[in-house]
Structure formats: C-alpha cells, structure tokens
Design brief:
Layout (H helix, E strand, L loop, with lengths): L4 H13 L7 E5 L11 E7 L17 E7 L2 E7 L10 H4 L1 H8 L4 E10 L9 E8 L1 H4 L26 H13 L5 E7 L8 H9 L4 E3 L3 H9 L3 E11 L12 H24 L16
Parallel strand pairs: 1-4, 1-5, 5-9, 6-7, 7-8
Antiparallel strand pairs: 2-3, 3-4, 5-8, 6-9
The structure holds hypoxanthine.
Length: about 290
Amino acid sequence: MTISEAAYRETAHAIQHQTRHTPTIGLILGSGLGPLVDQIENSEVIPYDALPNWPSSTVLGHAGRLVIGELEGQTVLAMQGRLHFYEGYDMAQVTLPVRVMRLLGIDTLILTNAAGGINPDFSAGDIMVIEDHIFPPGMAGINPLFGPNLGMFGPRFPINTHVYNPTLRKLAHKVAQAHDLAVWEGIYVSLAGPTFETPAEVRMLRQWGGDAVGMSTAPEALIAYHAGMRVLGFSSIANMAMDSTDAQEEVSHEEVLRAGESIVPRLATIIRGVLRDLPPFDPTEMENHPEP
Ligand code: HPA
C-alpha cells in the first residue's frame, strides 16, 4: 500500500486539532511498557480510532492511543501501543505514525520494545540500548521504504550508518550509570513475527551477531532516520530466546508482559534522564535530508 503525502498531512492535521501541545519528542512503547505514559503531565489522550488513516492496535498489552503532554520539560507524543507487521498491516501502515510525527515537528524518536535475549550473558529483566539492528525482512524486500520515494521526507537511497544516534546512546549510558542501573548495548534483530524463533534460528541469529530479537522497531527506526530524525532505542529483555530443542521452558506473551512490568520503573528513570539532559537537535548532523 502506498500512503499519499495528502494522507500523512490529513492525519497530522487531525492530531493538531485535538491537542494544544506542540510535541518535539516521539515515544513508541513496546509490549508491557505502556505504563510509562502514566508519568506524562498535563496529558491529552487521542484514541487511534479518532484519527483518519491510522491503523488500530490489536495486540494485548498495547492500548491503542496517543498520549501527548510534558515529561522532564520536553513536550512528548507517546504511542501507547505500536503497530506490527504481523497484525496484517503492511510496512507503510506500520510506520505511518513516524512520518506523521515528523510532520508535527517531532525531531527525536525514542523506541522501546520487548525482546528475547540471544546474547548468553543477558537475563530476563535486563535492558539493552540498541547500538544497531539486523532487519532480515527489510533486506528481503519487506521494507518500509519499498515503492516510490516521497522526497519531502528523505532521499531515495538513505544512508544507515548511524541510525541509533551515538550521542543519545552515550547519554543513556551516562544516565543509567548515575542511577546505578545496569544496561547492555547490542544488536537488535527485527523479524516479522508472529512466531517465536525456533532454537536453530536463535543459534543462527547469535552467529550473525544479534544480541536480542523481536518483532518491531527496525521499520520505525528506518523511517525516522530516512526523515532526518534522531533515534534512540531500548530493548527490554523479556525472556531468553530458546536455543535448544532440549529446553523445558516455553516463551509466552504473558511472560513478556510480566517482565515489562519489572522493567518499566528502570526504563522510565533512564528515559526521563535522557529527556532532562537532551542536547538540542541539530539537523545538519543528520546523514539524510529531504530531496530538493
Ligand atoms: N522472540 C521474538 N520476539 C520477542 C521475544 C522473543 O523471544 N520476546 C519478546 N518479543
């Protein structure tokens, strides 16, 4: 599905009509991480079904609404409930919110997800700052930038060397350290889902250099970076991915949601600290710019 420039603008205008805030920070909250929005002050709520062109969120643990308000002196627009490819939306629909954010003037996007740990040093409950990603569906053509390029957002062939902003990653570690919170940094593998990986697939992803695996985030990060936005990503390690057919335990969506609950307070501390000390956005530092 191709989404027209007019459709993105229509959705952005609908949001502008329903809020008095002018957000500059976008926040997309993964499975079980929705309660982070409770900390947003002076908030206004817009349900997804009040917005034209906006797909509705169908996954348990994803509320399906925008919460716009203030957090640590920044004006944020949070998606409580993200959209996933496995729900049957195509990659353009999954990433529509990010382009709408760009049209609203948002220049910085913070992405969070629940993920399975692949790195054997990880445990359930850990937090990982995303250094970079591996996105096999995108490499194989299920890519949010597939189709005609909308040059008003960014270039036909975007550079992707620094998708996850190095300065913001450093800041996240600094904040975590200041609060005595342990965080890893690593490579997120973004798959299409909805199936969890087989043990053979987990071993393959580990050999590829993956540290965590999930079913989101890379599409939104690529669309944001294409459009010249800064991106910071966090994986909350909800479970360890099963790497042996001899394993007795099973991964379940309920386990993913429970782990999210234990991670929310720590992740909230880190995200709040990043927002508090966020350096000003400088568009000239971005690798991708709109086409003339
Ligand atoms: N695999 C893929 N996605 C996930 C997992 C997992 O183990 N845990 C949470 N999301």
